[in-house]
Amino acid sequence: MNLSWLPTKNLSLAFLGKYTDSENDEGNTDWDFDGLTLGFDGTLMVTEKLALSFGYNYEKADTDSKLSVGLYAGWGGHVFTDQVGPGCDKVEYSQKAHVFMGSIDFTPTNSLKLSLNANYTIGKADMDTPNFSAPA
Question: pTM higher than 0.85 for the full model?
């Protein structure tokens, strides 16, 4: 969902939001994903030649998935000798990010435009440690 608003002739604001919920439970590829994005941005025309822009986005994503690896027994001649079965575990992964944005645009003449842009991101991600064990 996006919403734009012009509260004055010199100021524009935009807001956005998106939620995603998807999953797959067919076969051996079970997974689930939940995502959320929220944000806003704006532009202030200070003068005809000077504009200030700013924005913020928040992003959050959570994923649950099955992770499988082959488990082997023995080591012979630099090659694993016998596969004893798959190791499988459910893994949860989550990430969050805060993104701050700002810019200054100055146009002293029709043929010259000067811009200064800055972005700052704070992010965090966590993932379970899979526990693979040999079949009994």
Answer: no
DSSP string covering 5-60 = EEEETTEEEEEEEEEEEEEE-STT--EEEEEEEEEEEEEEESSSSEEEEEEEEEEE
Using CA atoms, how far residue 1 sits from 20, 42, 89, 100, 104, in Å, is: 12, 16, 36, 20, 27
For the record, the structure tokens of 107 come out as: 């146009």
Residue in the structure block whose two tokens are 């822009």: 53
Instruction: Give all strands (DSSP E) within 74-111, no chain letters.
Output: 82-109
Model confidence at 74: pLDDT above 90: no
| pLDDT tens-digit map of 86-100 | 667 778 889 999 999
Read off the tokens for 70.
């082959």
